Amino acid sequence: MRLPMFLAPLLLLAACTAPAPPAPAPAAPSAPAEFGGTDIAWVELMIPMDEQLLPVLDLVRRRSSDQRLVALAGELQGVYDGELPRLRALSDQAGLPKDNPHKGHKMPGLVDADRLAALQSGPAASFDREAVECLREHLTQLAQLAASELSNGTSPTVKTLATQVRQTRTDAGAKLPQ
């Protein structure tokens, strides 16, 4: 009779008669059962996505000549200010490290140092167009990431936040000037 693969190690351990070695130190805590891989990846990505857009929102409020764009930047600032503490709390609950695993990455929708520098130093005449392009890419990417979390995530708490993210980013994208 062939044993299932998972029983072989258990039988081998049971057959050992040597005294047990001292208990090892407890392993580092792993993510609680509520958080699956998609949930963890989404939270880890959302924090820098939100954080790295904040300077862009500040620039828009200071440099834009389009009052609708300025108003939208103010709305988004409020959304992100409320969302970041929730994301950080989820990160803490999942036992994730505090450092940004996406630091220095070039990814769609993630405002990197080069993009921010270009917005800061670019000519005033093209600022609004460049800012709208940056915001559109960011908002579209976050709506897509939220949809992926909703399809593949397992945490009800994370999925609730992803539902809000998808809605707020879709609504904000619809308000961007063409």
Secondary structure topology:
Elements: H1 7-15, H2 37-51, H3 54-63, H4 67-93, H5 113-121, H6 124-152, H7 156-175
Helix pairs in contact: 2-4, 2-6, 3-4, 4-7, 6-7
Give the mean pLDDT: 84
- State the distance separating the first and last CA atoms: 70 Å
The general outline is globular
Counting H and I runs of at least 4 residues, what is the number of helices?
A: 7
Radius of gyration (CA) equals 23 Å
Report the order of strands and helices: HHHHHHH
Query: What is the strand content?
Result: under 5%
Share of residues in helices: 55-70%
Can you describe what's shown?
It contains 7 helices and no strands. It is an all-alpha fold. Helix 6 runs antiparallel to helix 7. The longest helix is centred in the last third of the chain and has 29 residues, at 124-152. The radius of gyration is 23 Å and the shape is globular. The termini are far apart.
